[in-house]
Design a protein that fits this description.
Helices cover 22% and strands 23% of the residues. The N terminus is likely disordered.
């Protein structure tokens, strides 16, 4: 293969990877969680975000990350459900969200992330704990912030934590 062809293949590959890394939204579908629904909480330097429709205030970054003014940075701290519950209990008024509350953040028109990418798109995507029990002492409802899927997983798994108040 010539150098020119190698270059074209590389450019095509990089363009594909770049497109896959960006939020994938349906072009003809209006956003269900538009930017104007959210606002930074005064005095939080953007680290806390208020959902003006529900009145809930969310940590902008997953637990373990810090908002640096532009993005979430640091090391995310996946936790099993008992540890996540104890950690957030010591950080009143913060708590784990219910299934309905966390589902309220899910942008139904997009994936990767399935969140408003301007307000919550910085940082990892994946399964996030909720405070909603599935009727079993061993399992809890989790929601995937990459695609909006809902599941019941055992509480021993280390997953992401998003705080709300």
């Amino acid at each position: 293969m010539s150098h020119r062809l190698h270059g074209l293949v590389l450019i095509s590959f990089l363009a594909l990877v770049t497109n896959l890394a960006q939020a994938a939204c349906f072009a003809d579908t209006p956003l269900t969680r538009p930017d104007e629904r959210y606002q930074a909480v005064e005095g939080s330097n953007g680290a806390e975000v208020k959902d003006t429709q529900t009145g809930l205030v969310w940590q902008r970054c997953m637990h373990g990350l810090k908002w640096d003014g532009n993005a979430c940075s640091g090391n995310v701290t996946p936790q099993d459900w008992p540890t996540a519950s104890k950690t957030v209990a010591g950080a009143k008024p913060w708590r784990l969200p219910t299934q309905a509350e966390l589902q309220g953040l899910i942008e139904k028109s997009c994936s990767k992330p399935a969140l408003n990418s301007n307000w919550f798109g910085s940082g990892p995507m994946g399964w996030v704990w909720t405070a909603t029990d599935m009727g079993s002492p061993d399992g809890s409802v989790v929601i995937n912030t990459e695609n909006g899927l809902i599941a019941n997983l055992i509480k021993k798994l280390p997953l992401y934590v998003q705080w709300v108040r």
